[in-house]
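Writing this down once: the sequence line spells out the residues, with the fold written below as integer tokens. I am pasting one below:
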Amino acid sequence: MRHPEWIKVQSTGAHETKKLLRRHGLSSVCEEARCPNQGRCFSRGTAAFMILGDRCTRNCSFCAVDSSKPLPPDPGEPARVAEAVSGLGLDFVVITSVTRDDLPDGGAGQFAATVEAIRKINGSTRVEVLTPDFRGDTGALRTVLQAAPDVFNHNVETVPSLYPQVRAMADYSTSINILKAAKTLYPEIRTKSGIMLGLGESRAEVLSVMRDLREAECDFLTIGQYLRPRRDNIPVVEYITPEVFEQYRVTALEMGFRAVAASPLTRSSMDASLMFENCRPY
């Protein structure tokens, strides 16, 4: 399917952000997942750092990240991320990772160490973590939250009926419960989740997911259009119009989300600092 006229993907170009990432031997989910907003974000000197390597232990059909046996965690990675954040002069940074089901803690310790390393260099930097589900392990979740990130993000990605096709190695209830547990354990930390549209979901299903997230007291919501990153990924079923995205945004705010971003090119980490700064009070 050709992209409709309202989807215009910017060229990534060669920006200083990429050079700095290479210099520190780091990966960004922007590149690994072939995000359509790379050019927009890199030109602004921002990036979502991807820790724990670039090989995922799961094989979600929507994702372009390599799925193969990963390498052991790099103990020097947290410090290099902190140095890169300092080099870019970032006031707000997003830390995400591949899924590491091979590790006893799912990589939670590396998340915590990275948050702590960033804060050690610049205590005023806001940090959002976008984590895997840790297979529902609340102990691993607690490890991450004890490092006091400003935002805990975990994406449900799609509606429950599409999990067998889209996230075959994940479980919808586990994702909802990890968000609920995060808010229960540390209610002061803002929670966030995201969903992709255009995979064959119905409006009723999308609204049901939104209600589930609100019942889990999720603060922030992102809704974007799924775009097929490679030919071997699951195809786009439908392109959702900007008008429909706006309807979902208004409905989500009415449900009680503190901040909502919804548009064809909205992605989980895009403009994360603006969502944090401009959210509605409790």
